[in-house]
Amino acid sequence: MTSTIKERLPTPALAILGVTLFYRVATSMGPLAILLTLTEKLSLSIASLALTGWTLAGALSQPLWISVANRAGLQRTLLALGSVSFASHAGIGVVDGALAAVVLSTVAGASLPPVTAQARALLAHMLDGSRLRAAFDAEAALASSAFVIAPLIVAVSSLAGKVGPTVGCAILLGAVSLAFGFVGRGIERGSKENSELSKREDDARMGWRTLALIFSGTTAYGMLACVEVATVARVDDRTGTALVLSAWAATSFVGGLCFSRLKNADRLRFALLPVPVAACALMAAFTTSNLGLFSLVLVLSGFAVAPTTALLTLEIARVTPAFHQGKAFGWLQAGSWLGSAAATVVAGSTATRSLSFVLLFAALLAALSVVAIVSCRWRGSGAGEAQGADAARKQ
């Protein structure tokens, strides 16, 4: 049985999803804007170093800002971070020295507001059952669309000059911070009990299932990064690479939207988990011949990306108590960025020597992600007791 997203989700949830789309676009613009701007002004090595600082600082700061938001309030935290993020991203295109560019890029990454993590926690608080599944499916689908939208905005903003991409990213991040602070304010008032619990339970450790799922997210996003690097190396043409990766993202978007319309599709979600493993292994067989089949396998496998990403998010919401959900989603965001960055380094350094190794490594990462998700799902029913109590309270 199917229904539209608008019919199944309340207006505040739709507003949160809309804001997260723009945040995803902004954080997808950031790396590309930094690389283009600093490579042209300084050098590729300085740009790469600045991007490394941006990524590491952005990943590691997400759980910290979640804790700060629980204490100081979501709106005040986002206003402060949005101001710093706007100024630092805009400044990247203005500074001339290498050291200043690297430091400012690191500050820009560290000041990224925890919109994705906080949005997931708010959705988990607001919704339950099939509505939460629909929200996370839609969120994963929108994340795929951001992969296509961000380069287009960077290309258009480049017409404004050298500082266009970084200033465009800065404006979008500032606007998103203000918008999410406004959207989340009313929901935050309804989540005070979770905030109080968070203050009292801050020293408590997350359960092993939550930690395993965060690890699963790290390996899953590492797999996606390896596939992107392998596609760039295999296609060896800018236009062709852009078209193939855009088609891959588009099928992921379609997959997420399709699942968001289904009310009971848990078994089908789990059935899709092995698809990335099989796709990476199959693409490894076409690294030297039959580019058409390589591209076809990649594009078709995209249909499973958003639904499996949404499943991972759903499982974290299921096994994690309410007072730890914000922190858990913050670490999931951090793990996804760190996993993607580490896998990109490994894949980039080995792709020229053995493209098959890169894809088999991606298959291994995908398999590890599947094992973590399945083990958390089926190792006893006690994992969801805390979340079950929270769901009962919502009803």
Walk me through what this model shows.
This protein is globular. It has 18 helices and no strands. α2 runs antiparallel to α6 (115-126). It is mostly helical. It folds into two domains: 9-189, Growth Hormone, Chain: A (Up-down Bundle); 205-381, MFS general substrate transporter like domains (Growth Hormone, Chain: A), CATH 1.20.1250. The protein starts with a helix and ends with a helix. The longest helix has 31 residues, at 11-41. The chain has helices at residues 5-8, 11-41, 44-72, 74-92, 98-110, 115-126, 129-157, 164-189, 192-200, 208-235, 238-260, 266-272, 275-283, 291-301, 305-319, 322-350, 355-378, 385-394. Helix content is 83%, strand content 0%.
Summarize this structure as a short list of keywords or feature phrases:
single chain, 395 residues, mainly alpha, Growth Hormone, Chain: A, 2 domains, 18 helices, 0% strand, globular, disordered C terminus
Largest sheet: none
CATH topology of the largest domain: Growth Hormone, Chain: A
Number of helices: 18
**Structurally, how many domains make up the residues?**
2
Instruction: Assign the CATH class of the largest domain.
Output: Mainly Alpha
Number of strand segments: 0
Strand percentage: under 5%
Short summary:
With 395 residues, the protein is mainly alpha-helical. The protein contains 18 helices and no strands.
Describe how the helices and strands are arranged.
Blueprint: H1 5-8, H2 11-41, H3 44-72, H4 74-92, H5 98-110, H6 115-126, H7 129-157, H8 164-189, H9 192-200, H10 208-235, H11 238-260, H12 266-272, H13 275-283, H14 291-301, H15 305-319, H16 322-350, H17 355-378, H18 385-394
Helix pairs in contact: 2-3, 2-6, 2-7, 2-8, 3-4, 3-5, 3-16, 4-5, 4-8, 6-8, 6-16, 7-8, 7-11, 7-15, 10-11, 10-15, 10-16, 10-17, 11-14, 11-15, 13-14, 13-17
